[in-house]
Design a protein that fits this description.
Radius of gyration: 16 Å
Helix content: under 10%
Number of strands: 10
Oligomer: single chain
Number of helices: 1
Strand content: over 45%
Structural class: mainly beta
Length: 144
Amino acid sequence: MNLYDITHGNYNVRRTLSYPEYPNSKIVFDTEVRAISAKEWSTTITISGTYDGPTDFSAVKDYQVTWTTDGKTLAEKGRATLERASGGSVRSEWSSSIVPKEGRLDKFPRGGETLNVTFSPLKVDGSKMSYEWQGTVKATAATR
């Protein structure tokens, strides 16, 4: 089961992103997602906060997300390593609340799911960034 099956592609997300090496940095993404089709979604993102770290990121590795739910909201915890073009890396961590615009998340696996993703190198052209990603989703064992 994937997020599209559960939400029909229509949901809101509030994601808070932090960087352990840059404790004064905290970015909040308020996102509205609307499905155009099963393979194409329209996304509007409002970004606020402060970031005082480097900006020369060229790749993402070690991307992992864990999802759990109470039936109404999908709670997401994630982390990734951002590789820098100049060498070195920056760790990023986030937590999100994902709320479907209609329906509930009762069909979501009771123990949650873990998503591991591999990204292609980031391509930046002016103000546009593109990348490809491939991931695997695995159900987490239910806890009692």
